[in-house]
Every structure is written in C-alpha cells, then in structure tokens.
C-alpha cells in the first residue's frame, strides 16, 4: 500500500509517526454523514415489543404510585397494554424519524472527536494522487509493508478498528436503520467519483494517540509506527534538493533497509518512471 504526502510529510520519516485524521480534515464533505432513515425496521420493533412484553409491563407497573398500583393491578395492566399494543407500536414508529434525524447529526459530531483514520491507496504510480496529495508532485510517496503487525492490531475478530479495510464506492448514498449501521459502514463507503483512489483505511481511537499537538489551530493526533514497515520512498518529479536531503538523512538514520527512488517524467509518454537513487 502507498501513502502520498506533501513536503511537510517528511516528518513521518524523521520521527516515525503517522497522522490519523478526523473527518474535519477530509476533502469529501459527505464523510461520516450516514443516512439513517429509522432506528429499526418495523418488524424489529414488533419483535422487540413482543419478546420483551412482560418486562415492559413490569417496568411500567413498578413506576406507578401505590394508589395507581391499587387501581391497575399488574394483570389488568397487561390486558390494557395488550389491547392497545397496535397504538403503542404506531406511536413508537412515529417517533423513529425525528429521533433518527437527531442521531444522524450526533453521530457525525461524536465520531469527528473520537475516531482517527489513516488513508492508503493501492495506486503505486498515479498522476492524480501525485497532484492532489503530494502537492503537485513536489512531495513524495511511501510504500508500506502492510503485512507488518502495525496494520493489523485487532483486539478481536469483530474489531472494526486497528486494521486495514477496503473502501467501497457507490453512485448512490446508502440508507440505514440505526440497528444495522456499523462503524465500518461509516468510514468505508464513498461516492463513485472517488473510485480512482482505490483507498484502504485504518481506523483508531484518537484517545490512543502517542502524541497530540496543535498545528495552525488544528488538533493533530500522531501514532508511532515501526520503521521496518517502510519498503520504499519515491520522491516526486517536482521535489527539490532540500526534500531529497531530508529523506536521505532519514533513510540513513531510520530505515536503511528500504530503497529510495525519484519520479522522472517520460519524454515520450504520459508516464512517470521511478529511478533508483544511489546513495
């Protein structure tokens, strides 16, 4: 997998830390905005009501005053509740939409503050990625060995955090009930327009960051990674001597096992050639 970075990203190579960004820093305004139509499906609500009927009645009974309990013995309360179950279900269903709308906005705000994302790509040599994420070819690209344990730190098989997940693309926004929405759904579905990025993502809890700092008013969450996860660094076609020097210095100190290349514009084709730098 590959990570395209601008010139400032050389700090990744110098310090061995990666920024896991929040949706606030993403370039897609639809990030973390799931369409939640309802809390649950009608059948789920009905099944929940029926399977928990006795508990619902018991809780209602216990909330009554002593006088009310005398007027409405629990058996009578059960009969009344059973007789009005259709009305109760209709009332619950009517509340679903406004509650779902409230939760939709709340989910966006909460997740922005709690979950960080590392974005990688399958694209090893992509002109648009160089242009958009490496400051018009002035930056560089890192090739990571994603078999490194850093990229799979799951605590359980069902853990949606701490491992790489492939992004899926769809021209239509997906609609959910709250009961079926997962964390992976929030982070791994994007508009078809972004398909060219062939993106993979790794989500983490921001509270686990190794370092937090404020840069230009933005809170940055940094996570340490092992230098042996670096396989190759490719300098952009428009990168300058200063960046090359800093990359070489980092290579000598931190990841001498890896190789360094420079992207060179082909004289006859719309292509970039990666030429190995001799050090």
Task: Describe the overall structure.
It contains nine helices and 15 strands. It has about 280 residues and is of the alpha+beta class. It folds into two domains: about 200 residues, no CATH class; about 70 residues, no CATH class. Strands 1-5-13-14-15 form a five-stranded mixed sheet, sandwiched between helices. Strands 2-12-11 form a three-stranded antiparallel sheet. Helix 9 links the parallel strand 13 and strand 14. The chain is elongated and about 90 Å long.
Sequence stretches where pLDDT stays below 50 over 5 or more residues? none
Number of strands: 15
Shape: elongated
Number of domains: 2
How far apart the termini lie comes to 24 Å
Adjacency order of strands in the biggest sheet: 1-5-13-14-15
Number of continuous helical runs? 9
Write the H/E string, N to C.
EHEEHHHHHEHEEEEHEEEEEHEE
CA radius of gyration is 26 Å
Fraction of residues in β-strands:
25-35%
Query: Approximately how much helix is present in the residues?
Result: 25-40%
Structural class: alpha+beta
Largest sheet: 5 strands, mixed
Mean pLDDT: 84
Walk me through the topology.
Elements: E1 2-5, H1 10-15, E2 17-19, E3 35-38, H2 42-51, H3 53-62, H4 66-71, H5 74-83, H6 85-114, E4 115-121, H7 127-133, E5 140-144, E6 164-166, E7 168-170, E8 175-177, H8 183-187, E9 189-191, E10 199-205, E11 211-215, E12 218-224, E13 230-235, H9 241-254, E14 259-265, E15 272-276
Parallel strand pairs: 3-8, 7-9, 13-14
Antiparallel strand pairs: 1-5, 2-12, 4-10, 5-13, 6-10, 11-12, 14-15
Helix pairs in contact: 3-5
């Amino acid at each position: 997998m590959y990570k395209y970075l601008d010139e400032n990203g050389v700090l990744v190579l110098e310090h061995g830390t990666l920024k896991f960004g929040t949706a606030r820093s993403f370039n897609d305004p639809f990030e973390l905005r799931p369409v939640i139509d309802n809390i649950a499906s009608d059948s789920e609500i009905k099944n929940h009501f029926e399977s928990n009927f006795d508990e619902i009645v018991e809780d209602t009974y216990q909330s009554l005053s002593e006088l009310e309990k005398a007027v409405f013995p629990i058996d009578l309360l059960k009969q009344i509740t059973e007789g009005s179950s259709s009305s109760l279900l209709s009332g619950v269903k009517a509340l679903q939409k406004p509650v779902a709308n409230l939760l939709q906005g709340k989910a966006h705000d909460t997740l922005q503050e709690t979950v960080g994302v590392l974005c990688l790509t399958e694209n090893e040599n992509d002109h648009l990625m160089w242009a958009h994420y490496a400051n018009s070819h002035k930056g560089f690209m890192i090739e990571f060995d994603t078999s490194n344990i850093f990229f799979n730190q799951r605590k359980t098989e069902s853990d949606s955090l701490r491992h790489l997940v492939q992004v899926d693309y769809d021209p239509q926004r997906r609609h959910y009930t709250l009961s079926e929405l997962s964390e992976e759904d929030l982070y791994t579905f994007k508009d078809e327009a972004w398909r060219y990025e062939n993106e993979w993502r790794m989500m983490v809890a921001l509270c686990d960051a190794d370092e937090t700092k404020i840069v230009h008013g933005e809170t940055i969450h940094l996570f340490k990674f092992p230098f042996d996860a670096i396989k190759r660094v490719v300098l952009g076609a428009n990168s300058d001597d200063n960046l090359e020097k800093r990359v070489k210095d980092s290579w000598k100190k931190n990841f001498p096992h890896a190789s360094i290349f420079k992207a060179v514009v082909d004289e006859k084709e719309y292509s970039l050639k990666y030429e190995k730098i001799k050090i």
